[in-house]
Amino acid sequence: MKQIKNFILVFLIMFFILPPCFAKDKVRVLSLDGGGIKSLITLKMLAYIEEGTGKKTGELFDYIAGCSSGGMLTLYLTMPKEHDCHKPAYSANQIIELFQEDSRIIFREKVTAKCLTKPAVQLFSTPYNLKTMMEMTTNRFKQYRMRDAVTDIFVLTFDTETNMPIPFTNYDGDYNPTQMSTVAAATSVAPFYFSPIDYYDKKANKHRTLIDGGLVAKNPSVFAYGEAKKRNPNKDILMVSLGAGYQEKYDYNYDKLKNWGFLKYSLPTYTFMLDGVTNTNDLYMSNIEQTDKTLRYFRLQPRLDKKDGFDNRPDNTDQANFDILLRIGDQYVLDHKAELDKIIKELNEENKTK
After folding, report:
1. Distance between CA atoms of 111 and 336, rounded to whole angstroms?
2. Which of 133-142, 273-282, 344-353 is most confident?
3. How far is CA 137 from CA 182, 185, 260, 300, in A?
């Protein structure tokens, strides 16, 4: 009888006590696409997730990655409170207001662009002033450095001299002393719009010429997955990848392109490259999910239509355009509530175990 009691006790321990102790933790990863002012749509999705979880984005995720405007959002979301360095300063709804305000400053045209028109200036120079960008990011991110982020972050830039991506994180001792303001500008200075950033890399003991990280990964989910996997090899990964909106290019059909030369192809090719990498990385992550059973992958990417009335350029800061993008974001949240609710459920379940 005593042996039976002992067996039952062991059985209860094995099946009701030990599993929670040895359960695999999940690493909660957020990946944020670039997209200029269309990132307002991304913020609308994050605001809905925050409302459903009762927490700010910087508290919900263990790891946040972004590039271009998504890199800028990463820094907004993880910048610490002034009097509580462990809490994020802003919610997604607060950033919606800040993002509009800061975009108007960043995209303030030079005098030459106003006089000669922006497209004319872009043929030989940049229409926006890098100094203005740096003043805005310094004002917004103050004295904070990458190491001050409230959770692990990964912000991507691109070095034109080595033709290599340069990631800035809060956990790499060589790069985490870098000012958030510098990284925010470096990940956002898109070609044709801003001059590059001259950055002295102490690790490499050389100057780097940094531009928009969107050139190599407008959708940084592959980088985010690889980094999270490398740093947490024994944990499951819950990844949420949010796009800023994608407009299909129906105008670029065979009949239109078949006789194009260099001049006509040059600008569309830049667009093809950015959107192509975005969609390729999504496809790659979907394929990884089929083989890596430790990965749970969510991808939300609005498909935009010209009839919605928005301007697809990344620098139109008219309030009317902001309002259209915010309405698109609200409608997308309504249309994809079921998917967003699944994400909220997963995050809430994870929060219970933390």
Report:
1. 43
2. 133-142
3. 7, 7, 40, 28
